[in-house]
Amino acid sequence: MSELLLAVDGGNSKTDVVLLGVDGTVAAARRGPTVSHQQVGLEEAGRRLRAQVDALRGPGDVIALAVLCLAGVDFPSDERALARAHGGSGFGRVVLENDTIAGLRAGSPTGWGVGVVVGAGINAVGVAPDGRRARFAGLGPLSGDRGGGEALGIEALGAAVRAGDRRGERTSLEALVPEHFGMRRPIDVTLAMYHGRLPHGRVAELAAVAVQAAREGDAVALGLLADLAEECAAFAVAAIRRLGMTRLEVPVVLSGGVARGAGSLLADAVEERVRRLAPGARALVLHAPPVLGAALLALDEAAPGDHAAADRARAGITAGSFGG
User: Fold this and answer.
1) Which of these CATH numbers, 3.40.30.10, 1.10.3210.10, 3.30.420.40, 3.30.460.10, describes 113-146+224-285?
2) Residues 283/267, Cβ–Cβ less than 8 Å
3) Are strands 93-98 and 282-285 parallel, antiparallel or unpaired?
4) Burial class (CB in 10 A: 0-12, 13-18, 19+), 142
5) Model pTM?
6) Which residues contact residue 211 at a Cβ distance below 8 angstroms, ignoring those fewer than 6 apart?
7) ∠ at Cα 195 (34, 167), nearest 5°?
8) Where are the domains of the chain?
9) CB–CB of 23/309 below 8 Å?
């Protein structure tokens, strides 16, 4: 019989699950479909997570503690609903956190700072050295959020269409956007989505196209990345102000697929903007899977102060753990 810790990072598009020992040794890891209750409903979210965990653990494995860092853990009502959905799953004691916490814990050497997730959507959290938190609603346009892969993809498509019909500035996106979908003109992509031939959700794929164009020096794409940097910085600045951290060397951890793709192009722009308020701030991109943060949070409770265990977890939980 093995007593294990369960670490989960559940985003809007995928779920990373890791089982590890109290000494930080990774026993098993896998990537599966989303368990977001906002995407699939509470009952299906619970079923999916149980199935993914059951596929990993052996018949004698006992999970003593589960840290579930999930998109959509935004309000106390979410926490109560998700506690009911996952509390009876045989995971031992269950700790629920928003997925922003996972990215911050994985990327901050001290465990505090600001974490900004730039994936399909965008959200952030601030954690002060004394543990106080600054959170955001994270409900997309309903809570004033701008940015993330879907928003950047839509902006890229819009810029390409505008260039094509001569309403906007010429841009390499005019060719790159339709090329991504095997089409000839940007308007062909728009019409394919309008008529349902191309799922609307695939517009998020164009975030990577926009980043590619920006890396190649396209002025319009660089402008889109600058707008995203402004939004990331707005989250960070708000958290720093609310927590009184302007005089501290605040780490600003950017996680999520869009942040990883944009890399220093985004991080440098965010850091420059945040330093206007907090001169000691530094922005970095998290390249490790955010589920590492969930694992470190589990070890913080199960093996507090065991730096060797944390180091084993960092060495064992990499993008390669999930075939990435």
Assistant:
1) 3.30.420.40
2) yes
3) unpaired
4) exposed
5) 0.92
6) 221, 225, 258, 261, 262, 265
7) 100
8) 2-108+288-322, 113-146+224-285, 149-217
9) yes
Is 113-146+224-285 in the same CATH topology as 2-108+288-322? yes
Q: Which residue has the tokens 């997925």?
A: 99
Give strand ranges (E) for the chain.
Answer: 2-10, 15-20, 26-32, 61-70, 93-98, 113-118, 122-127, 133-135, 251-255, 282-285
Please give the structure tokens belonging to residue 311.
């180091």
Secondary structure of residue 5 in the 3-state scheme: strand
Q: Which amino acid is at 54?
A: D
Q: What is 2-108+288-322's CATH topology?
A: Nucleotidyltransferase; domain 5 (3.30.420)
Within 10 A of 84 (CB to CB), how many other CB atoms are there? 11
Angle of helix 206-215 relative to helix 149-164, nearest 10 degrees, comes to: 70
The series of mean pLDDT values per 10 residues for the chain, 324 residues long, is 89 92 96 91 92 90 94 90 85 93 95 94 96 92 90 97 97 98 98 97 96 97 98 98 98 96 97 98 96 97 94 94 70
Q: Give yes or no for a contact between 291 and 317, defined as CB atoms under 8 angstroms apart.
A: yes
**Strand pairing class (282-285; 61-70):** unpaired
Burial of 266 (0-12, 13-18, 19+ CB in 10 A): buried
Distances (CA, A) of 50 to 55, 88, 214, 230, 293: 9, 10, 41, 39, 20
Helix axes 173-180, 206-215, angle to 10 degrees: 140
Contact between 60 and 1 (Cβ < 8 Å): yes
